[in-house]
Specification:
Helices cover 35% and strands 29% of the residues. It folds into 2 domains: 148 residues, no CATH class; 65 residues, Arc Repressor Mutant, subunit A. With 219 residues, it is α+β, with helices and mostly antiparallel strands. Pfam families: HTH_10.
């Protein structure tokens, strides 16, 4: 399994709006943790993490809501200066591409104003197929980093399905769009099984995030 990070020549208007108000001196960071396309193909629902000393959650939400195409935006401070947000759009450039449908790990807004997309691929062949599709769609990209993924990080197909369904159903929204029982009914598995699967996924994502921080500290 491979983890690949690519710098793509795509624009995310609301992420750019957030970045535009965060100066480099404050060392603000913007990371899109998930980006799920709506079933009708119009727009996406995204989970984003923002580190900033410049704005509070209400100000972040107000800035994002002012962007054309944004339907909803809410942010909550989960740790000092760290905000978790949900952004729902009516239209989004990336929703018209295959990108959100892949095993997306995160999207990072770089200091150079570009989006860095990190994906998981089962094999080199799958990765090269993806690059060919980008070429066919005339999406410019630069390969930033490729690494092999430890088995401890690997998210199974079933875990991916449950996680995406939880995001699409608003399980992580505030207030929640569905309950654990409602999610289990949609997936046709027991609430206990859903809770166990999500717990395992969250642990793997946490391990991945910690390991990524350790790797960054060595650069």
């Amino acid at each position: 399994m491979l983890k690949a990070t690519l710098k793509l020549e795509l624009h995310c208007p609301w992420a750019e709006q957030l970045a535009g108000g965060c100066d480099k001196i404050s060392r603000s960071t913007i990371t899109i943790l998930q980006c799920i396309p709506h079933s009708d193909g119009r727009g996406t629902s995204a989970v984003v993490k923002v580190f900033t000393r410049m704005f509070d959650g209400k100000t972040l939400a107000r800035r994002v809501k002012g962007v054309k195409g944004v339907k909803e935006a809410s942010f909550v401070e989960v740790k000092p200066y760290i905000y978790l947000g949900i952004v729902k759009t009516l239209s989004c450039p990336c929703s018209k591409t295959p990108l959100p449908h892949l095993n997306l790990l995160n999207i990072r807004y770089g200091e150079d104003g570009k989006l860095y997309w990190s994906f998981l691929f089962a094999s080199k062949g799958e990765f090269h197929d993806f690059l060919r599709e980008l070429d066919e769609r005339k999406i410019n990209y630069t390969i930033h980093e490729i690494t092999r993924v430890s088995e401890a990080w690997a998210i199974s197909e079933k875990q991916t399905i449950v996680l995406k369904k939880a995001l699409e159903s608003g399980f992580y929204d505030t207030p929640r769009g569905t309950t654990l029982r409602g999610l289990s009914q949609e997936l046709r598995i027991s609430p206990r099984a859903v809770a166990d699967i999500l717990r395992r996924v969250h642990k793997k994502l946490a391990l991945q995030a910690v390991e990524a921080e350790n790797l960054n500290s060595l650069k």
